[in-house]
């Protein structure tokens, strides 16, 4: 558009309807001449013409030239120069209503944008928003002041041109949130959070936050962590089992370490918080890999024993003959091969803390009787010992076996079952809380990439759909293993559908009653699952050179589950 000498305003023929409306509104005009590149008049744009275009559902981005042409083809609906020929009254009111709706929509958008800007500017932290290409779309006053730049100069530029050492554009590609990272800006270590913005399964941008007050706090947290780690190694030297590496490296504590917002998991988190407050025995059930140990640690960390040890023992992994010594310890010379000076048992090591009895359903009957006595008397007697020692231990037990059925079948003691089953927490299988899959993937991807020192990876929409569609029989452990495998196998930053193991894409049954090629689809499905699981197990055994413990780890299932499957598939 041009404003010539003597305030003569014209509109270029390639300008849009939206620009035409803006021009008329800005200059308070009813009509404006439409000109070509040489300034020659090609027609006249009026409010009536704009109303006509809106009434005919034309796009706001259409050129004025096209609208002029459409008007003339329409048989002169557009008024002639003198404006005597108006659109008919019905169309006129339709157009007016549409314009009014657009005006209100615009007003609302402006109001929201203003509110958002006020909120952003009032925030103490620096906030920057980038789009899917890493281009700055919004930045607040605090960030601009810190960087010493003007908002207008930052907006529209790639974030790397605006903020030193930023990784926001990488966060957009990986889709992985980065919280509490240190970023050097102007030589100062700053604490930043980088959070991807997801829409319809795709990352469409990211928000960066600069925490001005955070550095000293972070150093304080760091100092406390160092103290804790020193404490842990002191305890390890004294014989207390160190927590798993995963738990030690994770900053999350208590229910924080449980990822997921599905209602079933939200209810579990509530139960955990309640259970943490009381000393009663907790009994956790759920399929293998659903996070029973994670839940047990969360209870320990959220309760008053958090400063005490968390000791875990897998009752299925220890041969029957050694289980008693592992649990209660042994005296010097208690049996052939016993360590000189004896050894404390898990109960003693957990004194003042929590003992997690995993796979309790696999505990032999004879051992169950001894366990019941210890739980009732709160005293343990070492193998080869003569007197008992008092222990103050909170018990959390877990199993993936149907313990009630085992009680009925006589393979699990009823009295021990009731002694354990005081607070019951059931962890749902992953297939029943699929909405948590993206968050679990993001969490473990970030954790593992940090652990391996590699850059983050993101999933294509198709790959994510496959991961969400799969039934995850090995639950979260299987998911973690798939992520670990992908991190080491995929070179690039984007994980595509074809990078995923083939068994994840197997067709799901649509309806059990449907038939396909004469065979019942549910039977075909079962057969396919059977085949694919058999192949996966065979592949894992080959990859692990026949080592069953390693194969079970690769498959994300417990060793005892692998043995059952080996039997089932006739290996
Ligand atoms: N809610 C969760 N959020 C994040 N990670 C989880 C969650 N639950 C489980 N995991 C991860 O899944 C894996 C398996 O968890 P865990 O060992 O607690 O399962 P489990 O039910 O005790 O398995 P099993 O019955 O075989 O002993 C671990 O890598 C753990 O970090």
What does this molecule look like?
The protein is an alpha/beta fold and 571 residues long. It folds into four domains: 106 residues, CBS domain Like, CATH 3.90.1280; 90 residues, Beta-Lactamase; 186 residues, P-loop containing nucleotide triphosphate hydrolases (Rossmann fold, 3-Layer(aba) Sandwich), CATH 3.40.50; 134 residues, Helicase, Ruva Protein, domain 3 (Orthogonal Bundle), CATH 1.10.8. Helix content is 46%, strand content 17%. It contains 23 helices and 22 strands. A five-stranded antiparallel β-sheet has the order 6-5-9-8-7. The chain has a five-stranded parallel β-sheet with strand order 11-14-17-10-18. It has a four-stranded mixed β-sheet with strand order 1-2-3-4. Helix 2 crosses helix 4 and helix 11 packs across helix 12. The longest helix is centred in the first third of the chain and has 34 residues. It is elongated, with a radius of gyration of 34 Å. It starts with a strand and ends with a helix. The N terminus is likely disordered. The structure holds adenosine-5'-triphosphate. The site of adenosine-5'-triphosphate (ATP) has 20 residues, from helix 12, helix 18 and helix 20. The site of adenosine-5'-triphosphate has 20 residues, from helix 12, helix 18 and helix 20. This is Anaerobic nitric oxide reductase transcription regulator NorR. It comes from Geobacillus icigianus. Keywords: ATP-binding, DNA-binding, Nucleotide-binding, Transcription, Transcription regulation. InterPro entries: AAA+_ATPase (IPR003593), AAA_lid_NorR (IPR058031), CBS_dom_sf (IPR046342), Homeodomain-like_sf (IPR009057), HTH_Fis (IPR002197), P-loop_NTPase (IPR027417), PAS (IPR000014), PAS-like_dom_sf (IPR035965).
